Amino acid sequence: MLQPPVTIPIAFVQGMLSGIRARGDAAPIDANAALEDAGIAPALLEEMGSRVTAEQYVALFALLMDRLDDEGLCFLSRRMRRGSFALMTRATLGAPTFEVALRRVAHTFSLLQDDLTLVLLRDGSLAGFGLQVNDPAATHMNFLHELMLRVYWRLSAWLHGGRLAARRFDFGFALPPYAEGYAKVFPGPLKFGQPCSAVWFESSALATPMHRDMHAMNLFLAEAPANVILPRLAEQVVSARVRAVLQQNRPAWADLATTAKSLNLSVSTLQRHLATEGTSFQSLKDQLRRDLAIVRLNTSTVPLAALADELGFADSAAFQRAFKTWTGGAPGSYRRRHEPGLPGASGASGTAGSAGSGEEPAQPLTTSRERPANR
């Protein structure tokens, strides 16, 4: 099945580079050179509405980890060398339950760096893991919190069997101006200004038996980092199905009624499902057209008039007005920054690295009914 394209808000690219740029003249690599090598024009970071393709985002992430030899991307006081994520993942081999697997991940994490501790949380019928900040400098590094929550949530969901539902994501910082981009990255209700950054799920999940073996882990790690840092459309089930219908019907661009019929839903039921997921049919259609436009501008020389027709606009002027609303910039200037043939993620290495497993730790996670405060 042809999958709809994915694009990433530029705020997450800025965040990915913020640990490096915080080092100033002592930065170990040239951030702008890394951007260009990933096919991202540095000037794009100055336009807050701009976006990059998923391939560019993954390529940048893998490239930074390789050049820094640091999976922590300069956010932590000591490097998490390449292979750290693989080591934490493989430490779960043989764990009898999901809870024991989480404890092993946390124990290994604590051996690799000093700035953060993964802690087990309990609150009534919910359980979760949170980031206890040991280095005050890490408290206000938003992207570090975002990265750790996303990576360890995806790992946790995979360890559990791929069906673990997040009941809530907490963030230990105030609502950021780019929070609109969180919806696809963190699949659940969001709360900001919390005592610590955390993800919550049903506590009954902790007792789930573990079934992941070395073969499954190798497959999972082979797809990293894409499978841990990119949005997963399946997490917004109805939204993903709507995008798929729209993609499959191009260039006709199915309307609301046609889409509802394709999904065997009434129009009102479809609208209700989308509202529950925090979106609407028109928003999904515009997002898909925006993402398709960005991908086409990055990878082809198609004339703007032809692209406007592909995307269902009456003329080039209407498309250009819409594109500026979506991204803050004109498609023509965007294309001039992105010549065809820029590198994608096809050659990017993942986070898989050296194998490892640890002894069963006595208390690798702290257990508390209260959420830990940042220190």
Rg over CA atoms, rounded to whole Å, is 21 Å
Main β sheet profile: 6 strands, mixed
Count of structural domains: 2
Helix count, per DSSP? 16
Weakly predicted, low-confidence segments: 340-375
Helix content: 40-55%
Distance between the termini: 48 Å
**Mean pLDDT, all residues:** 85
Structural class by SSE content: alpha/beta
Please give a quick description of this structure:
The protein has 16 helices and eight strands.
Which descriptors apply to this entry?
8 strands, 375 residues, Arc Repressor Mutant, subunit A, alpha/beta, six-stranded mixed beta sheet
Structure notes:
- By secondary structure, this protein is an alpha/beta fold.
- It is 44% helix and 9% strand.
- The chain has 16 helices and 8 strands.
- Strand 3 and strand 4 form a beta hairpin.
- The chain starts with 6 loop residues before the first strand and ends in a 7-residue tail after the last strand.
Show the helix and strand layout.
Layout: E1 7-9, H1 10-21, H2 31-37, E2 51-53, H3 54-68, H4 84-90, H5 98-112, E3 116-123, E4 126-133, H6 142-160, E5 168-170, H7 182-185, E6 190-191, E7 197-202, H8 214-222, H9 226-229, H10 237-248, H11 256-262, H12 267-276, H13 281-299, H14 304-310, H15 316-327, H16 331-337, E8 367-368
Parallel strand pairs: 3-8, 5-6
Antiparallel strand pairs: 1-2, 3-4, 4-7, 5-7
